[in-house]
Design brief:
This protein is an alpha+beta fold. It has 2 domains: about 30-365, no CATH class; about 370-475, Immunoglobulins (Immunoglobulin-like, Sandwich). Helix content is about 40%, strand content about 20%. It contains 17 helices and 16 strands. Strands 8, 9, 10, 12 and 14 form a 5-stranded antiparallel sheet that branches. Helix 1 packs across helix 4, helix 2 packs antiparallel against helix 17 and helix 4 runs antiparallel to helix 6.
Length: about 475
């Protein structure tokens, strides 16, 4: 038998031969022109924008006891929070605050998805502000798209220059305010007007301003989609009873355009008119009709615009809404979904969070605004002085954590006949750390050789009596 050779194909390749196809692993992102929307969730979003920004920009200018109310003075190593003064030794409170923040994030995510991302995250808040500036200067979505596609002209250059100038000024003010939490802001303002900012202050104003300008002006959704780790591990905290933005596919499909007077059932269509407005208003550019996606920040913009469309065509609202997967599949009412929200995971998060908050509150309430370190004099462990008394020398580091001058009385106990042979009082200015040498003596008849535990008592003699008790060791030579 003989086989006939297979004739080559028209392009010169043998049939069945493998062909190479070039696949690009990089796809440039498409610009997202989010359309402005009005509605319930938009109002909530803007209410939180106003609340967070009034808080951020206003707190540094608020005075408390003739000083800045909130100031993290790294140079002086003091942190002022209204009437509370904290020191590096109080780092445990920062750790507690971080734990509370993490648990609160886990709790809110388990209950209602990415509420933080959609309404209070700085990236969302500043992106919303920058988009508002953009809309005021360049116009809404359609106008911005036309402007970007048009050739460079004096009008286009002027609009772009005005927008970026506004962004830069706002970003610099944001950076200035940020630095004002670490350097007294009134002093910082005077230095700025005198063009006499220090190198580190200048660096952080420019750095934080540049970060705001870049993240909110250019990167926007890229931060949420690719840089934020929360978007990646949020699925571990979601389950089918988590409240998320959902599209009711049973009601909406099959989608399609129709006239307002048409009967969708007669046309075999669902409630979705396929207007794509839910995509146009999305700040991350996703289509909520494709189901839950990690890019969704739960802002509710698609809910607002879909409700507007449903109202215009005369259909019931709620085609896109906050719901749970179980609630959507089983047709649960809002009350049933709320009842299912109280599941073991949520109760555990709530219990741990409440316990830590209570412990923090009690600890702060019982916190003594006085810190004392007792250090033995390493040059002389013990010595014999007049009348045969055994003497040890200690150095007391007394930190007054109040904002008023305090006079502290020092006592010592622990060995029979023990007494102070030096000053028994020390005056410490507000928020000052002061050292004091203390001589402690024990009469010879009670001076048994060895080391003996003793206790220093340091107590305020002012109107707000408070004190501490510190342990030390008294050495009697053999």
């Amino acid at each position: 038998m003989s086989t006939q050779p297979t004739p080559p194909a028209a392009d010169g390749k043998q049939p069945g031969a493998q062909t190479e196809e070039l696949v690009s692993l990089y796809q440039s992102s498409q610009a997202i022109y989010a359309k402005a929307v009005n509605g319930l969730f938009s109002k909530w979003r803007w209410a939180l924008v106003w609340f967070t920004q009034i808080l951020f920009y206003g707190l540094p200018w608020l005075d408390w006891n003739s000083r800045q109310a909130v100031l993290f003075d790294l140079e002086a190593r003091r942190f002022y929070l209204f009437g509370l003064v904290l020191y590096p030794q109080d780092l445990i409170y920062l750790a507690g605050l971080l734990v509370i923040s993490a648990l609160a994030l886990f709790l809110f995510t388990a209950v209602a998805g990415r509420l933080w991302c959609g309404y209070a995250c700085p990236q969302t808040v500043y992106t919303e502000i920058f988009m508002w500036f953009e809309k005021q200067i360049e116009g809404d979505r359609a106008a911005r798209m036309r402007l970007d596609k048009s050739e460079l002209s004096a009008v286009k250059f002027g609009l772009k220059a005005a927008k970026h100038t506004t962004w830069v000024l706002f970003s610099l003010w944001t950076g200035f305010t940020f630095v004002g939490y670490f350097t007294p802001i009134k002093e910082l303002w005077a230095l700025t007007l005198a063009v006499n900012l220090g190198p580190w202050q200048t660096f952080w104003v420019l750095f934080y301003g540049f970060a705001t300008y870049g993240n909110a002006g250019f990167m926007r959704e890229q931060v949420c989609k690719y840089m934020c780790p929360y978007a990646r591990f949020q699925s571990a905290m979601f389950d089918k009873d988590t409240m998320i933005v959902t599209y009711d596919a049973k009601r909406g499909e099959p989608r399609g355009a129709r006239s307002k007077k048409a009967d969708p059932k007669a046309l075999g269509l669902g409630s979705c008119v396929d207007c794509s407005l839910c995509v146009q208003v999305c700040p991350t550019g996703i289509d909520i009709r494709k189901g839950l996606q990690y890019e969704c920040i739960g802002c509710g913009a698609c809910i607002d615009v879909c409700d507007e469309v449903m109202e215009k065509v005369g259909y019931p609202k709620g085609l896109v809404k906050y719901s749970t997967q179980n609630g959507l599949e089983k047709g649960w009412s809002t009350g049933e979904m709320v009842r299912h929200a109280f599941r073991p995971r949520v109760l555990i998060y709530t219990g741990i969070l409440a316990a830590i908050c209570l412990a923090m509150a009690v600890s702060l309430y019982l916190r003594v605004p006085l810190k004392v370190d007792v250090i033995r004099d390493r040059g002389t462990l013990a010595r014999i002085v007049e009348m045969g008394h055994v003497e040890n020398v200690y150095r007391l580091q007394v930190m007054n954590a109040t904002e008023s001058k305090q006079t502290y009385v020092i006592t010592v106990e622990g060995v029979n006949g023990i007494k102070l042979a030096s000053e028994t009082t020390i005056e410490v200015l507000p928020t000052e750390l002061r050292g004091m040498a203390v001589r402690v003596q024990v009469p010879p008849e009670h001076a048994q050789p060895g080391s003996h535990p003793i206790y220093f008592g340091i107590r305020s003699s002012g109107d707000d009596p408070h004190g501490v008790r510190e342990k030390a060791v008294f050495i009697v030579p053999r």
